[in-house]
Amino acid sequence: MNTRTIIATKVSLLLLAALSVQAADQMTKYYARSGSKMRIEGTSTIHDWQVEGTLIGGYLEVGPGFPSEPGQAATAGKIDAHAEPFIMVRSLKSIEKDGKPYSDRMDEVMYEHLKAQQNPKIAFHLTELTLKEPAKSKDDPYVFEAKGQIAVAGVTNDVTMPVSILPLGDKKLKVSGKTSLKMTDFKVEPPNPLGLGIKTGDDIKIIFDWMVGQRNPPATAAAK
């Protein structure tokens, strides 16, 4: 390899590194905050049921063009975005319609069928985020289409769902959405509690509000 080739190679590598750093600088990262909630709704032959959890972890990372402030102008189209939200299976609890705890036994049956010991998380991996409708006012959310994979009980499936994102100001966002799934698509057998002939429906609905925010930079140490 001659000197010119070596120099050209080094310059190319430096340019690639600079572009990578620049691209990283243009991404904004939001981390999970308190105030989140995920709800799973289903049916059975005796009554409808619901479980809820409030500990949604993970992060959302977005690039240029993402509307981060209330009412910000935005153009429909794909947004450079990455997200890895998750919820721990054992944080889900069965509840009555009024929100009161329902049944510890139902919780244990749920954990068993979701294989919580081997697969402790329900996780979503975002692969594509497209802005469909800009916010109509400062108090309205932006409507997106999210594509990705959801992993439940050790099985991963593709999913596409509508998601609304509401900028709250103060570098915080509320990400909301819902989607319908089938237990058997994740090789989860609908429970038959206690073998009493009670049948649980295969179809479930997942509804969530995920609160995220940017981290504050560390305080500068006082000058000595």
How does this structure look, described?
Strands 1, 2, 3, 4, 5, 6, 7, 8, 9, 10, 11, 12, 13 and 14 form a 14-stranded antiparallel beta sheet that branches. The chain is built from two helices and 14 strands. Helices cover 15% and strands 42% of the residues. It is elongated, with a radius of gyration of 22 Å. It has helices spanning 3-25, 104-113; strands at residues 28-32, 37-42, 49-53, 56-57, 59-62, 77-79, 81-83, 86-88, 93-95, 121-133, 142-152, 155-169, 172-182, 203-213. A hairpin with a 6-residue loop joins strand 2 (37-42) and strand 3 (49-53). It has 224 residues and is mainly β. It has a single domain (27-213), classed as Beta Barrel (Lipocalin), CATH 2.40.128.
Which runs of at least 5 residues are low in confidence (pLDDT < 50)?
10-24, 220-224
What's the gyration radius in Å?
22 Å
Per DSSP E runs of 2 or more residues, the count of β-strands stands at 14
Number of domains: 1
* Class by alpha and beta content: mainly beta
How far is the first residue's CA from the last residue's CA? Answer: 53 Å
Task: Assign an overall shape.
Answer: elongated
| Proportion in helices | 10-25%
What is the CATH third-level topology name? Lipocalin
Could you name the key traits of this structure?
single chain; 224 residues; Lipocalin; 15% helix; elongated; disordered C terminus
